[in-house]
TrEMBL record:
Protein name: Integral membrane protein (TIGR00698 family)
A Pfam family the protein falls into: Cons_hypoth698
Species in which this protein is naturally found: Rhizobium aquaticum
Family: Belongs to the UPF0324 family.
Membrane-spanning segments: 12-31, 43-61, 73-95, 101-118, 130-154, 160-180, 192-214, 226-246, 258-279, 291-308, 320-342
Membrane-related topology note: Multi-pass membrane protein
Length: 345
């Protein structure tokens, strides 16, 4: 009885903050729709706009203590639920159709890119967690990778917001420049599709970058991007394993804490992916599931913004941008190396 009462009190205390986060998320969505109405496309997605609006509120207005509990719930629990739901959008069968050489090449490239990007971040004096967030965002799937890795490494809200902000900016730049590069070089549709899937951060951005080149490029780019997204779970597993088996522990004290290495939401993500692959999640149900996942993610990002003082982000912004830019250039080089190894012209 006492436990139930405690849960009710906690839920009641969280409601104002959840409501505030939802309102900020709605403003972010409205801002995205306004962009589309004015410019014909959204340069900044509602997810990024929600972070920005929330951060502006926190920086210039402040956050009343009554909202703190709900903001914390929205930033953590709602985000974890969203990650689980996103697993339903991925089918294992699509990965198998790509061929072992391409799958293995993309997987190896992701690990090389993560390690290289992390090293660059540390050389530029980024703190360990921030360097890891930038590396995963750059190498795997942008914002989705950042928000999935953040709770595993216990990243600060400022680090997550900084990583997402600059990843979003670089992502837009890549989408704009890639089609120009294809037009200038006359790259084949298949080659360009693989390059786009390897370098563009988000699936919608892959579609935007490849659509001008044609259907084959879109299909190839989306498939390669899907393989990169699939690498999120193994990368998180390795990060958790390395963190658990740090050099500070003695050999006898090293005990793998599986709950920390593989958080419940990653297990749920894999389970949803398996259900989708087994045909237990219908195409009709997939739309509402993806919509709910997107909505929860935007609310979580609003909470993230409400946890951040922008002055803290700006203090490390130059190093984050430099790390992301150099890492992106390195990722392009890795992509061309993969194309050469696969013999795709």
């Amino acid at each position: 009885m006492q436990t139930a009462q405690t849960w009710q009190d906690t839920s009641r205390a969280a409601l104002p903050g959840i409501a505030l986060c939802s309102a900020v998320a709605a403003l972010g969505f409205l801002a995205e729709q306004t962009e589309k109405a004015l410019f014909g496309r959204a340069w900044f997605e509602s997810l990024v706009m929600a972070i920005l609006i929330g951060a502006l509120i926190r920086t210039f207005i402040g956050l009343h203590p009554r909202f703190e509990a709900g903001v914390k719930v929205s930033a953590k629990l709602l985000l974890e639920i969203a990650i689980v739901l996103l697993g339903a959008s991925i089918s294992i069968s699509a990965i198998g159709d790509a061929g072992p050489a391409l799958v293995a090449g993309v997987a190896a490239s992701v690990f090389v890119a993560v390690l290289s990007s992390y090293t660059i971040g540390r050389m530029l004096k980024l703190e360990h967690r921030l360097a890891l967030l930038v590396a995963c965002g750059n190498s795997i799937c942008g914002n989705s990778a950042i928000v999935a890795v953040a709770p595993v490494i216990k990243a600060r809200a400022e680090d997550v917001a900084a990583s997402i902000a600059f990843t979003a900016a670089l992502g837009i730049l890549v989408v704009l420049l890639l089609p120009l590069g294809q037009h200038a070089t006359g790259m084949s549709a298949e080659r360009y599709g693989i390059l786009s899937g390897m370098t563009v951060y988000a699936v919608p951005q892959v579609l935007a970058a490849t659509a001008p080149v044609g259907l084959l490029s879109m299909q190839t780019g989306t498939l390669v991007k899907l393989i990169r997204v699939m690498m999120l779970a193994p990368v998180i597993f390795c990060i958790g394993l390395l963190g658990d088996c740090s050099a500070e522990r003695t050999q006898t004290a090293r005990r793998i804490e599986w709950a920390k290495i593989i958080p419940w939401f990653i297990i749920g993500f894999i389970a949803m992916m398996a259900l989708r692959s087994a045909g237990m999640i219908s195409d009709q149900a997939l739309g509402p599931v993806e919509t709910l996942a997107t909505a929860l993610t935007i609310v979580s990002m609003a909470a993230l913004g409400l946890s951040v003082d922008m002055r803290t982000i700006l203090s490390s912004g130059g190093r984050v941008l430099a790390t992301g830019t150099i890492s992106l250039g390195l990722l392009v080089g890795i992509s061309f190396a993969l194309l050469h190894l696969l013999g795709i012209r």
